[in-house]
Amino acid sequence: MGEVRRDRRGAALWLTIDREARRNALDDAVVAELIAGVEEAGRTDGVRAVVITGAGSKVFCAGGNLKSDAEGDPFRVDPNRLDNPVATLLGAIERSPVATIARVNGHALGGGFGLVCASDFAIGADHARFGTPEVTLGVFPLMILPAMLRTLSRRDVVRLAMTGKPIPAAEAASIGALNEAVPEAELDARVDALVATLAAGAPTAMRFGRRALNTIAAMPYLDGIEYAQRVLPLLSRTDDAVEGFKAFNEKRSAAWVTP
User: What is the pTM of this model?
Assistant: First the structure.
């Protein structure tokens, strides 16, 4: 039995890290299941979002498993393995054609905070705390720095990474780590409402747009403009775009063609 539950809920595929007794920590097996779930969502008709959450109400994800080996090193890796599993997971989220929503049910620390920053949307329970405590263990949150730097200001990244001190949900929302912090009782309703909003948009536009957004974000400004002007004509010729313009002119709701 795996430790990541997959549940189809309407237009969303929910991935729940089911390791409450271990603070929903990441290990190789859990990361592999998350990758498989993200990839499944991207190729499944009708799925418009991936929701990543943790079991229980205390911890969303406490990051990597910090159990040391015989030499006291919790980060020893096989030198024959090309990629760190967390790097592969972050890449899978980046390449996914559908949006990722972090449903932050509790504390998000280390790699768990990286998942929050890597997601397109993050809605958190107001009792949760967020941070990168790695520096207190003699290391640094290197694997999640790219996601942090893309989501937060550099000063906030420096503060979190170099002090190791967690921040409350309200502050996480104020610096952009969360879209909003809500009472725990409202968390599912807010996530469901967001999924419904995403499901109402044109599927092809969402997929084109998400890829374009991520691509342009990594480009110099003028290169981004050049890329945008080449992609827009292609997008405007898709079946969903044709239907969207037709529905607008006929003053009716669009019936999207793409599943």
Answer: 0.94
